[in-house]
Amino acid sequence: MTAVLGHTIVPVRDQDESVDFYTNVLGFQYGGRAGMNDVFAMICLNDSSTLDLRDSDEIPGLIHHYAFALDRPHFDRSFQAIKDSGIPFGNESREAANMLVPGASTGDKCETLSVYFNGHSGHLLEIITYE
Q: Any idea what the CATH number is for the domain that residue 23 is in?
């Protein structure tokens, strides 16, 4: 049996700014509002997985991070948008603002190129490509 991630709830400081970041910087699609009283702003990662953004004053520590596997053109566009936006980035999770170019690392499939940076609400994020 194959399983895919359906959704994960991501606490954010400001939904509108977070939607803007995930759509305009990372290039994902906005999926509208959901949940009782429309408390979630859905970001579509693919045909079956969403990030459900919810306003919260409590943002989890940066020991966890969200990694997005992108094809090479999407990776290149997103990395350029990160640079153009002035978002500090790095090539290691422990040094997410060292401003070094994408680093080679081992992902869940094989060798990857990866970039780490902090999202609007302070989450540690990673974009990776296997191509």
A: 3.10.180.10
